[in-house]
Specification:
Length: 459
Amino acid sequence: MTAAALSRASAGPALVPVDIGHAVYAAVTDPNTAFWALVDKTRVAESLAGGPLLDSYRDKADTFARELHALRFELKPSGVYLNPTERCNLNCTYCYLPGEQRSGGSHMAAETLIASLARLRDYFRSVMPQGRKPRAIFHGAEPLMNKAAVFAAIDAFADDFVFGLQTNGTLLNDAAVEFLTARNVSIGLSLDGPFADITDATRRTWGGKSVHAKVLAAMGKLKGYGSWSVITTCTTENLPHLTQMVELFHANEVPTCMLNTVRCTLPGARGVKPADGDMARAFFAAMDRTHELYRETGRKLVVANFANILIGILAPTARRLMCDISPCGGGRAFFALAADGGLYPCSEFIGLPSFNGGNLLAEGGVEAALASAAFQTVIERDVDTFSPCNECAIRHFCGSPCPAEAHEMNGGMEKTGAFCEFYKEQVNYALRLIADGKADDYLWDGWDEDTETVFDLAM
């Protein structure tokens, strides 16, 4: 958005109504600034015509527009996803990496990984505030397939990065857990079913063996550790069991989980994609169950991807994940390093050679990649510029994710992602929770400690 556009938005903001499916309240929003308010359903027309709400909003509209513009277009990267190997010991149905890479790909040599982190350290020092460490997440394929190099890198750069590791959990033995937890590395696991036959439907070894029991064992090893989580990828195979999934996670004292929609970048994932309506019903039932468990026990199970939607509504600049904003975080808030040294906007693109922005250790490094056509194609994806997103009232609470699946599944960056209707319903569900005063029950304790209230008008 240009300065002129910002001026026009602030000169005459227009609020539009949104039916959120609540018995008492509707929402009104300015889609251009992500401003919203809840109003009595019987007073929507009055609120849109003028009065205290519209007058007060006009006083703040320019500030809101500038904050949103800064979030969308002025970030510098502060994190990197590190893919130290192309290999994985699992052959998951929906993986975004091609099978030939996962079955027979290469490891990054330890010395190359060390050199890469040194180059990344120098880059982040040049763009981040002094004293703030970038995040470096070891990521899929399966990083523990190259464990020696990963662990050497963590020790070599312990003072320079905040490290995390996303693993399928099958190689997470006692020694690995001791190493990672002693260094306060955040650990993410993956589990797709409450029972082995559900997990096995999409996540198995190349030989077809179950990994369900190994992941449960890894969860047991991490119980009591403060920095771990579990991802469930929602597919047609496990959708009827999402409520049981959150019950399992809560019973195992998982502090944070994610119930992610399957990313449909490659064809294998599209074969297990749920319909939007089915996804919404199962997802909201699972969210309702997390709330019941919290009320029964006093212990939260935060579903991070939904919590981020809530925070994106309540305090847009405080969101922790950058998938549900446009442009997304790929190439803006973070980028990915592949095992061959190539730089990509996000790990989701590593299986797509046209999105390689160049080699980290080549001349130009990160800066050249960020300026490359491969990165700019992602960075410039803007929901304000294409239909139907540019006409959607909640487009800046959704972001039309994911650009990789929009490009590969739907034919271009100017297309929607795979779950348009689900995201609309998810925002409505979040607004209903806010209307009922329940939102904090779904969020991390203290999530708002560093936020400031800039608009509060009781209607």
